[in-house]
Design a protein that fits this description.
This protein is an alpha+beta fold and about 180 residues long. It has 6 helices and 8 strands. Strand 3 and strand 4 form a beta hairpin.
């Protein structure tokens, strides 16, 4: 979600299955990535968000892809569809290994799906709380994003049921109403 915000998205949708343990899908309409950046996004300590050394003194991003995506890809099965509007890319990773990289669809933005979280490290699953607790963490985080970025439309669904939906109108009172009723 942070990368989607950094990419200038005006609409971000998060779809969870079993609180994200079975599947997490994030779809945005942001800037997308070219093929080189799509592959780079799965490299540890790599980023396309800094172009030169002067950018280190004016960081205005929420994070760097190489921190989160590399870690997530190492313990799950990831499918990334992304397009900057000029070229589309598809990347499939499993357990940190590149399975497939090819040209993809041209819908501008990014669609990333994470399946079978911790499939190759079952010992880490024992540190997960109940599904309800994990879902609560996701809902809390999405509510915070919606309150912080009222100009972005956020949708969060769990097992096919809509949990959160904001308009992205920029009206903070409406976002508060969308969250708290």
């Amino acid at each position: 979600v942070e990368n989607a915000i950094d990419a200038g998205s005006t609409a971000i949708e998060v779809l969870l299955t079993e609180a994200g343990l079975t599947s997490i899908q994030i779809v945005d309409n942001g800037a997308g990535m070219d093929s080189e950046d799509a592959l780079l996004s799965f490299s540890r300590h790599a980023t396309s968000k800094i172009a030169n050394e002067h950018d280190l003194f004016r960081i205005r991003t929420l994070g760097f892809r190489g921190e989160a995506l590399a870690s997530i890809a190492s313990v799950s099965k990831v499918r990334l569809h992304t397009s900057n509007g000029e070229s589309g890319t598809y990347v499939h990773m499993e357990g940190g290994r590149l399975i497939e990289h090819r040209a993809g669809a041209l819908r501008k933005g990014t669609d990333i799906q994470i399946d079978q979280l911790f499939f190759n490290t079952p010992a880490r699953l024992k540190y997960m709380k109940t599904l309800q607790t994990e879902l609560g963490h996701s809902i809390d985080l999405m509510n915070r994003f919606a309150l912080s970025y009222p100009g972005i439309s956020f949708k969060l669904s769990h097992d096919g049921r809509m949990i959160l939906q904001t308009s992205g109108s920029g009206d903070i009172k409406r976002v508060i109403s969308d969250i708290y009723g």
